[in-house]
Amino acid sequence: MPQDKKVERKPFIVFEGIDGVGKTTLSQRFAKEYNARWEPEPTDTGLGEKIRDILQGRIIGANPNTLRHLFAADRAQHSDFIKWALELDMVVLDRYCYSAYAYNMDTTAAKRDLSAEMEYLVMPDLVFLLDADPVKVRQRLEKRGTLQRFDDLDTQRQVRDRYLRLWREWPGFFVRIDASADLDSVYAKIQVYFNYWLERRRGLGLTGDAVSSIATNKDGSNPDQ
Ligand code: TYD
């Protein structure tokens, strides 16, 4: 849900996307360049560690509801911290509640819980969706020998479709960046868009063709290929 209140605080920016698409590398580089605090979800607290234990098979037998509630609990704590951190610094997150939407929305209860969760979470100002065809992402990971970070193709396709639904619903807030090119050119697009966004936030409203086409969901690259 886009932030609707005008608040005086530092920018809160989220990066989302399927496994292995380059979120961590790009969000860390972005945070460094803009002197922001970088945070991952699941977090590096005890709760986040439990989640990783489950995801990486060190704890077995957790059902999807347990995992979903653990993600939500981790995020509830994190949200409090983010509110506090935003008084001092810009905050950049590697995943947030949109991951819950993309990965965990298999039941009616899950949907209900997520909309309740979004009532109390601090909302970001902008979400970068790093988007690429799962087949291409898998090929890239294969080349690097890091395929273990990738779930099966059908799951990744479903996750991507859900992300694209959010992008269609919230143009200008949920910003799709075509992430199928090399990391440097993907990063350059993020920079261009973010600089434009910052100018607009400061009230200068400078737009160029490149950024306005991204903001209106018409950047020329077809997400359905
Ligand atoms: P992580 O090891 O951080 O993966 P990545 O490097 O790809 O970001 O693990 C995060 C995994 O948890 C990822 O597959 C997405 C999933 N996830 C959910 O299913 N629900 C959530 O609410 C969140 C935050 C993540």
Helix and strand arrangement:
Elements (H helix, E strand, L loop, with lengths): L11 E6 L5 H11 L3 E4 L5 H10 L8 H22 L5 E4 L2 H8 L3 H13 L5 E6 L2 H11 L8 H17 L4 E5 L4 H19 L7 H7 L10
Parallel strand pairs: 1-3, 1-4, 2-3, 4-5
Helix pairs in contact: 2-3, 3-5, 4-5, 4-7
The structure holds thymidine-5'-diphosphate.
Could you give a short description of this structure?
The chain is 52% helix and 11% strand. With 225 residues, it is of the alpha/beta class. The longest helix has 22 residues, at 64-85.
Tell me what you see in this structure.
With 225 residues, this protein is α/β, with parallel strands linked by helices. 52% of the residues lie in helices and 11% in strands. The chain has helices at 23-33, 46-55, 64-85, 97-104, 108-120, 134-144, 153-169, 183-201, 209-215, and strands at residues 12-17, 37-40, 91-94, 126-131, 174-178. Bound molecules: thymidine-5'-diphosphate. Residues 19, 23-24, 40-42, 55, 71, 95, 99-100, 103-104, 149 line the site of thymidine-5'-diphosphate (TYD).
